[in-house]
Q: What sequence folds into this?
């Protein structure tokens, strides 16, 4: 019997405390005054009686009741039921200190306040409703002044009311106030009582949120409830604990947390707490707490918190069952004839049904847990552990994070301790858990059966809480309504303590006498049902049957080993190693080895021993990731069984060869294995001898069954399991005598102790290394042993304070001490749990050091003799072929090349030989990292594997851990991973003979050669003698590239130039002066004339990236260098530079002002001849002739970053449009502001800025004047893109009919492909691609009259005033579905720049110029994308997630999006220059990265010369080298740039060119291999071309004019790598030498006759391809881009005695091993080589291939070219798409974000004309799909397939058509819409004509609108209820009522679907907030299914008109 209440407390307001702040409470009475012996009184109770604080109130409040939970020091919960009311208090307000005291006799004002007072009951029981009644009775007696003594009520409540334990009878009692009460204990106290709290929690939060809370509580996360009701907080916390049953929450539990204790929320331990909603602001700062708002039903989970959820199948089942219970009508909601809906359960029963579902959930979650229990002691108390790893493995949930944390938590450990014993009191959960598997199978997902089973469990739960069905009428006195509002309420009386104590004592005495007479039947213990096993035995046996073939091979191999048939064993040995990946095969291996060990075959020969050890190692490696450790457990005794004799008296056991595996360092493994063996011994202790069958199972069964299967099925193989024996022993324990009990205890203790001794010896064997001098390899524990599953911020839940931390405590230098400590920790753990006596533990600890010392002494002899064994013969190290000048730095380090994420070469799903792993050696040379070896697979070991990459391409080097790799005999735990930017990856695991020092030396050497101190230390400068000054100069320049140094120099420079300071007269030695730009500490090999002093001050840079260095003159020394260069720089010496010759080719003038002709508009300026204007620009630049050098030097350069002023790089030969490049305009950044402050302090600051602006405007005017479209037109009212939209014959350059353009025509499919390519590429004047192609598809086409335009024709005027054409109104062109704003003007110069800088430009100062802001690829984005691309293309591990594919990874890199951005902007420049004739200026970033990409690609698309091999070289020399792309910085050539990261800017350009070559294969002289060759060598550092960051630096270091051509010798001389071959310095010379001998770079599809076409490639992602340069490799020769290496690797040598294969021989070519292009030549190369062989056989000197190729005659060309409708469609479609992209770029730049705010509005549309999908570019119409329905955007006319709708851009990127033009178009007849062009039907030979086709592509934008009615209306807002005037349009066609911001607005703000209207009527009254002067009857309401819209018209008539119009549409 237990007291109902332990204490009664009266807590009141403490008036003695200061009232200025919040008050406090104090205990007025507590009864009994003396603590009970079994229950001490809780301190701080007053905080929980008023959680919100003790504050006075100015108003009367109703009494409140809630229950708080208190936890004592023993973690027992006590419930504090508190009833709070208020008493009247007369207060005298205090005056502030600063107010003077009133005069005596003054009036004192009193204030009436209300102070809180609480009466509380403290109890260990949770009968909340009874507490409410009892406290209510006390309050009623007090408030109603009843004639009952409070002392009697309180005394009876504390002393007389006693409650029986669970299962007892109903209690009826009275506290003496005329009341009748009853109380019923539950049947089972272990099952929590929830009343209806669980159902209420689901109503408040919903199913998913409660399940999230459930998972958070199970995984030990912090949970916080908040509500405005304290009772709701307690109920929610109680409900959460109820659904956690059968687990018990073991952490902090405070359902109602007082405000004074809010800091408790910062505790690191998990908790469940509740706070009042008034503390919302404070709990928002909690970053690791799951917060549940009970009032709004919102659950907040922190973003960084990874909340593990239930396994999917369990979560889905629970969600389905909860839905069936909470929403029973949901499953029939869609039925046409729904069955009768079952009546919902009542609240109490619904609560129990929900709890039943969670009990079923736990039963399914823990299904089979009893089969994983291990019993280690039975007497005197059972000790049981749980094998977590085995349970997870058997359930197939090893990787489930949720179950991992649940099983490792404290709650589950308590669950095992309480429910683990096999003989105990059982409850409902035991029965449910035992039958859950059968129950789920019977239900079969049928709702009726599920509901029935759930209701059965709920009924038992309800009976458990309400066992007595008979109702009892209670009588509870209550106060009158409104009693608390009475004016005169007496104060709560003082209670007589003596009287109360007397009543308590009397009641306790009577209760004790009554308890002696009562007997309550206690529940009996019983056998716990075993339940289903954790795994499915049938499924395991099916797996075994599926592996029967492997098992047979394994048995044959093992038998051959033990029969000493070594040759037979080695034949099947690789297959056995490969099969050990299967767990079944590994378990079979352990059983087979155990069988032979029992047959006394443990002593083996040396070869037998090696093979057995190798099998053990392989099995352990494959099993390393498993948590059950079944293989390691089975092999543990075998390691001490198998041995070999080294010499007399020295025997080596197998454990000395398998010690390196991490499983032996796992404390969890040793404990689990120890407990398993102890369980077997305990079982054998009590099992009769005749029933013992466990030791000798059938051999065949043992072979096929795994150890864990045997352990799970003990009930099948043996008569009794260990748990069954333990249950029987526990049952008979009370009947045993004392002697028998002591004997059992002693036997079990001896069993555990002897097993501990045995395992201590085993651990010594496995932990002490064979060579003690090398230390212990595995000092890191494989798993932590804390047993805690808490998140990182929680510290609760550990097993003990000395839990395993994961690291060994000992020093690695003391292996013996580390082993002793490790074993001692294990002994302490298992002996304390196993109940071993202290004496035995002490003796065991004393024994361990001696055993370790003896074993170390024994191993010394074994180690000594094992070294005398003949070493295993290893493959010979193959030396790699070296390049001329390449030297070995590190000789071969033996190791293994491991497979990575690429499937090629692994022999997996792609087939082929298993080339990896390969055994060989890794070499480091001055140029490369090379691995060369042979495959480990015996079937492929005759091949040679080579993988290499340049050392300068290395991007990341790190150590990685590796798992088991087949075919490798050694145990390898670590590897070195090298990743290169040439898309190569090496994972090298070094051989055991390579010690750690050599590995670290290799890593350091690799990093030293990767990041040398200077570029002169790199391979390209091999043989160059450098001086100290050169190195110091280079280092000095690199060191200054930091913001800190720049800032310091900027401040110093600014301070030195203030007024009054002298900065002249710097001739004195040692005096410091300021040099312009970067430091020019030039060695005296190349000198620059010193500029005048005024240039030094006036031409200072204005960019963050240009830095002024302060250099001491004394530091500059005159040195000589072996790098020869001219002493002075002059224009004559630069005339031979490729970019200067290209200027002259383009007709851009001659260098020097005196050399130019007066009529030339441009000149080659020498203003930057000495690089004192811009260090990163070339010495000679092209500028307009009217611009003076002085203007550039003093003003123009300072307007741009790094002084990179606009320079002309290319001129269109026909339109004379110019292409210019420069850096971005100067903006006012942080550094710019600092510099501007210096300028503002000078008197000439304003005039300087004005001068700069004027000079910049003059320069722009010169460009405009030299652009024909800008100089010849006097009007600027032209729409700048009309000419782009309509491709007329003049614009597209289509020749007149009858003209011919000779070209080569191939046969078959090649001719078709050439034709398609030529059609798509045409579009510029002079690009004669096809004869007879006329313009078609124009909107209004007229006969093209007049002769063809010449190069000097005014294209702009012709396109603007073309005959017969009509300009669409409003600035709209009806072509290509695009519309330009009416404010757009014809521009002669388009400037593409950054958005941030374009906004600040005053466009009115630049007439006929248009500034287009656009997006560009920032370098940091390119770096990030490239890293992702490398990881996607060359991943370090195979992809295991089926949802993450290779193409998905490439998509996530956004690499192709960046390529698309480059191509689109270049395409826009092409259209503007070629069609419109406008000049284009690219002005972005520093002008050296993205600018170079766009400018270079634009010239490739425009100029056919750059599509040749020589022209592409000139392009790279001009745009990338001369104009200063920072190759050294972007490629991280030196240590100073190491931290910046590799930026593949140039690689992106090559990729973009590759995309163009892929689409136009007939237009390029070079092939894809040419681009790959350049891409490889631009970062290989083999050639000197791509070094340094500017032409200035190349001149300074003497590489600008060096004669790089080879005068003698030939490339690729035969030799051994150290021969006197000549190292070529230039990549272009190297390419020329190869191209001279072989057509390796030549494109045989190249058609020079059509090379003049302007290329317009597709830039959509669907048309882009992943470059095979990123994914292909060649394991036969390594890199194929070093041709000498390829030649040496493929020719016969001493290592490969076999000669080359004859042409008639057959040969197998593997795609991952051989180079397909080299091994299988195409027809052209094969024929050329065959001709060369034939000429050699005829003793003729073979001709060069180029001469032979050019000598070939072209086939006869067709007299006429047939132009088909399909070809015309392709041509028009390609041109239209290209122009659309151009228009979008310009429109987006001009409109900004305004044009991007409109989403697409797709509608179903029927297509009867040929229309393309704007996303995938495939047809929406065809002969078969006529009338096909697709999707069309009603706003912008975007067309797409249904399947493409979700993939299109989310925002409407086109400009919407103005309403005026749309309205006119809607009135256009169908005859006007479909316009026929009679002139566009060309004549075909034979007199036939092609069918007439119509152009409907422009219709995509012509979406008509039917405006039934429109006008202004006032509309009331939905949220703030404000009135705004909108322009409304009623559209009867679209059935919409749309509204706009104004009449002129083209963007719809929203619309109302007329189909959703329910009612429409005038408003009865005027609504508030309406505009003044509004008519009362002009309001009308429109009600839809979503909301009610309120409108206000101008008048009542206007309102009626709107209502009538809308009703007509309805």
A:
């Amino acid at each position: 019997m237990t007291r109902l209440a332990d204490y009664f407390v009266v807590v009141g307001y403490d008036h003695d405390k200061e009232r200025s702040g919040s008050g406090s409470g104090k205990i007025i009475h507590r009864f009994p005054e003396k603590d009970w012996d079994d229950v001490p009184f809780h301190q701080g109770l007053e905080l929980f009686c008023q959680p919100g604080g003790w504050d006075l109130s100015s108003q009367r409040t109703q009494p409140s009741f809630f229950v708080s939970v208190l936890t004592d020091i023993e973690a027992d919960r006590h419930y504090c039921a508190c009833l709070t009311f208020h008493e009247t208090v007369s207060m005298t307000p205090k005056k502030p200190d600063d107010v003077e005291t009133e005069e005596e006799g003054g009036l004192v004002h009193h204030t009436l306040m209300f102070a809180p007072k609480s009466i509380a009951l403290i109890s260990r029981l949770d009968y909340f409703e009874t507490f409410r009644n009892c406290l209510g009775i006390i309050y009623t007696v007090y408030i109603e002044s009843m004639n009952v003594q409070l002392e009697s009520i309180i005394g009876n409540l504390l002393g007389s009311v006693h409650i029986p334990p669970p299962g007892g009878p109903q209690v009826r009692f009275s506290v003496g106030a005329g009341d009748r009460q009853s109380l019923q204990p539950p049947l089972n106290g272990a099952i929590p009582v929830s009343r209806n709290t669980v159902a209420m929690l689901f109503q408040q939060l919903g199913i998913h949120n409660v399940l999230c809370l459930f998972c958070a509580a199970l995984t030990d996360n912090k949970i916080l409830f908040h509500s405005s009701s304290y009772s709701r907080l307690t109920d929610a916390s109680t409900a959460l604990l109820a659904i956690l049953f059968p687990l018990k929450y073991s952490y902090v539990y405070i359902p109602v947390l007082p405000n004074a204790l809010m800091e408790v929320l910062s505790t690191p331990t998990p908790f469940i707490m509740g706070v009042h909603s008034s503390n919302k602001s404070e709990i928002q700062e909690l970053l690791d707490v799951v917060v549940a708002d009970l009032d709004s039903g919102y659950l907040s989970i922190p973003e960084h918190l990874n909340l593990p959820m239930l396994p999917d199948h369990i979560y889905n089942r629970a969600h389905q069952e909860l839905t069936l219970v909470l929403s029973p009508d949901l499953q029939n909601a869609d039925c046409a004839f729904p069955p009768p809906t079952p009546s919902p359960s009542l609240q109490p029963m619904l609560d129990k049904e929900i709890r039943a579902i969670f009990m079923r959930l736990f039963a399914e979650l823990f299904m089979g847990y009893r089969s994983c229990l291990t019993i280690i002691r039975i007497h005197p108390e059972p000790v049981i552990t749980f094998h977590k790893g085995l349970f997870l493995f058997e359930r197939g949930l090893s990787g489930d994070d949720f179950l991992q944390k649940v099983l490792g938590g404290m709650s589950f450990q308590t669950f095992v301790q309480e429910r683990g014993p096999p003989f105990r009191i059982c409850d409902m959960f035991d029965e449910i858990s035992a039958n859950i598997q059968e129950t789920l199978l019977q239900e079969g997902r049928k709702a009726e059966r599920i509901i029935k089973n759930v209701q059965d469990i709920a009924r038992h739960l309800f009976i458990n809480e309400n066992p007595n069905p008979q109702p009892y009428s209670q009588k509870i006195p209550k106060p009158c309504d409104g009693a608390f509002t009475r004016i005169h309420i007496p104060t709560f009386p003082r209670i007589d303590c003596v009287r109360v104590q007397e009543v308590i004592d009397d009641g306790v005495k009577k209760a004790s006498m009554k308890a002696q007479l009562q007997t309550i039947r206690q529940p009996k213990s019983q056998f716990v049902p075993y339940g289903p096993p954790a795994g499915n035995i049938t499924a395991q046996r099916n797996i075994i049957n599926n592996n029967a073939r492997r098992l047979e091979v394994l048995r044959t191999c093992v038998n051959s080993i033990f029969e000493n048939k070594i040759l037979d064993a080695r034949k099947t040995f690789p297959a056995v190693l490969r099969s050990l990946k299967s767990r079944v095969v590994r378990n079979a291996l352990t059983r087979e080895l155990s069988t032979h060990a029992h047959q006394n075959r443990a002593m083996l020969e040396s070869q037998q021993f090696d093979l057995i050890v190798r099998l053990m190692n392989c099995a352990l490696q494959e099993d390393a990731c498993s948590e059950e450790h079944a293989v390691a457990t089975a092999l543990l005794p075998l390691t001490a069984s198998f041995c070999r004799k080294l010499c007399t008296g020295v025997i080596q056991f197998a454990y000395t060869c398998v010690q390196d595996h991490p499983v032996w360092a796992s404390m969890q493994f040793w404990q689990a294995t120890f407990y398993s063996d102890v369980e077997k011994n305990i079982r054998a202790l009590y099992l009769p001898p005749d029933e013992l069958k466990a030791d000798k199972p059938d051999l065949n069964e043992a072979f096929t069954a795994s150890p864990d299967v045997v352990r799970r099925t003990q009930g099948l193989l043996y008569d009794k399991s260990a748990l069954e024996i333990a249950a029987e022993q526990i049952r008979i324990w009370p009947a045993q005598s004392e002697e028998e009990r002591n004997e059992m205890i002693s036997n079990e203790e001896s069993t555990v102790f002897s097993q501990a001794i045995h395992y201590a010896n085993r651990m010594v064997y496995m932990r002490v290394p064979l060579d003690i001098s090398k230390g212990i390899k595995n000092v890191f524990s494989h798993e932590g042993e804390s047993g805690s599953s808490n998140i990182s911020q929680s510290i609760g839940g550990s097993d003990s304070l000395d839990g395993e931390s994961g690291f060994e405590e000992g020093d690695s230098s003391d292996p013996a001490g580390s082993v002793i400590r490790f074993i001692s920790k294990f002994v302490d753990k298992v002996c304390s749990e196993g109940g071993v006596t202290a004496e035995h533990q002490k003796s065991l600890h004393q024994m361990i050091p001696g055993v370790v010392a003896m074993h170390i002494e024994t191993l010394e002899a074994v180690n000594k003799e094992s070294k005398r064994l003949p070493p295993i013969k290893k493959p010979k190290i193959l030396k790699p072929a070296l390049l001329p000048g390449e030297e070995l730095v590190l000789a071969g380090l033996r190791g293994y090349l491991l497979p990575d994420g690429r499937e090629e070469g692994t022999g997996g799903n792609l087939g082929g030989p298993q080339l990896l792993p390969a055994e060989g050696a890794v070499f480091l040379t001055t140029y490369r990292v090379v691995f060369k070896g042979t495959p480990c697979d015996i079937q492929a070991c005759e091949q040679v594997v080579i993988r290499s990459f340049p050392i300068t391409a290395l991007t990341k080097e790190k150590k990685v851990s590796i798992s088991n790799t087949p075919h490798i005999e050694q145990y390898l735990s670590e590897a070195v991973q090298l990743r290169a930017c040439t898309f190569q990856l090496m994972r090298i695991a070094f051989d055991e003979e390579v010690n750690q020092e050599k590995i670290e030396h290799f890593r350091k050497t690799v990093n030293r050669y990767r990041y040398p101190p200077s570029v002169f230390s790199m391979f390209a400068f091999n043989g160059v003698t450098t001086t100290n000054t050169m190195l110091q100069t280079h280092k000095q320049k690199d060191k200054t590239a930091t913001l800190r140094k720049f800032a310091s120099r900027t401040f110093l420079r600014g301070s030195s130039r203030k007024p009054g300071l002298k900065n002249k007269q710097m001739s004195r030695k040692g005096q410091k002066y300021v040099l312009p730009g970067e430091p020019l500490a030039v060695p005296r090999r190349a000198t620059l004339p010193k500029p005048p002093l005024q240039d030094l001050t006036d031409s200072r840079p204005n960019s963050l990236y240009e830095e002024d260095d302060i250099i001491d003159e004394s530091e500059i020394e005159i040195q000589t260098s072996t790098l020869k260069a001219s002493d002075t720089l002059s224009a004559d010496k630069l005339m031979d530079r490729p970019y200067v010759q290209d200027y002259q080719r383009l007709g851009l003038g001659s260098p020097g002002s005196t050399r130019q002709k007066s009529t030339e508009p441009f000149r080659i300026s020498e203003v930057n001849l000495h690089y004192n204007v811009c260090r990163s620009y070339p010495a000679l630049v092209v500028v307009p002739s009217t611009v003076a050098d002085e203007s550039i030097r003093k003003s123009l350069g300072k307007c741009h970053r790094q002084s990179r002023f606009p320079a002309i790089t290319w001129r269109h030969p026909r339109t004379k449009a110019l292409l210019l490049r420069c850096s971005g305009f100067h903006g006012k950044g942080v550094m710019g502001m600092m510099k501007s402050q210096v300028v503002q302090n000078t008197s000439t600051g304003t005039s300087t800025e004005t001068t700069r602006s004027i000079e910049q405007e003059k320069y722009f005017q010169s460009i405009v004047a030299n652009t024909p479209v800008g100089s010849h037109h006097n009007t600027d009212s032209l729409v700048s893109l009309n000419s782009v939209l309509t491709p007329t014959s003049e614009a597209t350059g289509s020749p007149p009919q009858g003209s011919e353009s000779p070209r080569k025509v191939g046969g078959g499919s090649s001719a078709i492909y050439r034709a398609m390519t030529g059609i798509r590429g045409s579009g510029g004047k002079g690009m004669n691609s096809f004869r007879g192609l006329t313009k078609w598809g124009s909107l209004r086409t007229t006969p093209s009259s007049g002769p063809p335009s010449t190069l000097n024709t005014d294209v702009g005027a012709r396109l603007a005033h073309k005959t017969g054409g009509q300009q669409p109104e409003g600035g709209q062109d009806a072509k290509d579905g695009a519309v330009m704003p009416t404010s757009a003007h014809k521009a002669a110069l388009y400037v593409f720049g950054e958005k941030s800088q374009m906004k600040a430009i005053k466009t009115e100062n630049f007439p006929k110029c248009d500034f287009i802001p656009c997006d560009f690829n920032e370098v940091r984005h390119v770096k990030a994308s490239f890293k992702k691309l490398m990881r996607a293309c060359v991943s370090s591990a195979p992809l295991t997630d089926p949802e993450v594919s290779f193409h998905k990874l490439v998509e996530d890199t956004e690499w192709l999006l960046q390529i698309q951005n480059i191509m689109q902007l270049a395409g826009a420049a092409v259209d503007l220059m070629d069609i419109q004739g406008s000049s284009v200026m690219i002005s972005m970033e520093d002008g050296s990265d993205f600018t170079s990409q766009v400018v270079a690609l634009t010239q490739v698309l425009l100029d056919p010369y750059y599509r040749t091999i020589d022209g592409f070289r000139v392009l790279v020399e001009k745009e990338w080298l001369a104009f200063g792309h920072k190759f050294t910085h972007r490629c991280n050539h030196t240590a100073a740039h190491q931290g910046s990261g590799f930026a593949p800017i140039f690689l992106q350009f090559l990729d973009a060119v590759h995309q163009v070559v892929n689409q136009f294969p007939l237009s390029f002289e070079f092939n894809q291999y040419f681009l790959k060759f350049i891409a490889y060598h631009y970062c290989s550092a083999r050639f000197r071309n791509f070094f340094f960051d500017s032409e200035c630096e190349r001149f300074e270091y003497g590489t600008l004019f060096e004669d790089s051509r080879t005068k003698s010798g030939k490339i690729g001389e035969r030799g051994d790598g150290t021969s006197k071959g000549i190292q070529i310095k230039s990549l272009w010379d190297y390419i020329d030498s190869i191209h001279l001998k072989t057509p390796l770079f030549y494109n045989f599809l190249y058609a020079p006759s059509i090379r003049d076409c302007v290329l317009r490639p597709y830039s959509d992602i669907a048309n882009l391809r992943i470059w095979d340069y990123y994914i292909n490799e060649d394991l036969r020769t390594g890199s194929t881009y070093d041709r000498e290496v390829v030649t040496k690797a493929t020719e016969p040598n001493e290592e490969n005695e076999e000669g080359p294969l004859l042409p008639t021989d057959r040969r197998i070519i593997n795609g991952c091993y051989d180079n397909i292009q080299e091994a299988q030549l195409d027809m052209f190369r094969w024929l050329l080589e065959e001709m060369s062989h034939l000429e050699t056989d005829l003793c003729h000197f073979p001709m060069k291939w180029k001469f032979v190729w050019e000598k070939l005659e072209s086939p006869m060309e067709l007299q006429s070219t047939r132009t088909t409708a399909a070809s015309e469609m392709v041509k028009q479609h390609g041109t239209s798409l290209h122009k659309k992209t151009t228009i979008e770029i310009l429109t987006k730049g001009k409109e900004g974000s305004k044009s991007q705010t409109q989403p697409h509005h797709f509608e179903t549309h029927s297509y009867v004309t040929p229309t393309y999908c704007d996303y995938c570019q495939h047809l929406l119409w065809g002969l078969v799909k006529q009338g096909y329905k697709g999707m069309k955007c009603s706003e912008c006319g975007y067309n797409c397939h249904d399947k493409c709708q979700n993939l299109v851009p989310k925002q409407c990127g086109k400009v919407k058509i103005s309403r005026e033009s749309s309205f006119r178009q809607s009135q256009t007849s169908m005859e006007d819409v479909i316009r026929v062009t009679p002139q566009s039907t060309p004549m075909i030979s034979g007199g036939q004509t092609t069918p007439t086709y119509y152009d409907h592509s422009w219709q995509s934008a012509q979406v008509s609108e039917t405006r039934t009615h429109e006008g202004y209306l006032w509309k009331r807002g939905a949220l703030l209820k404000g009135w705004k005037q909108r322009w409304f349009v009623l559209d009867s066609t679209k059935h919409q009522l749309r509204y706009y911001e104004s009449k002129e607005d083209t963007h719809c703000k929203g619309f109302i679907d007329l189909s959703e209207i329910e009612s429409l009527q005038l408003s009865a009254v005027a609504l508030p907030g309406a505009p003044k002067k509004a008519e009362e009857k002009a309001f009308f309401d429109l009600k839809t299914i979503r909301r009610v819209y309120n409108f206000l018209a101008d008048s009542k008539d206007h309102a009626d008109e709107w209502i009538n119009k809308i009703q007509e549409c309805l």
Observations:
- Residues 738-767 form the longest helix (30 residues).
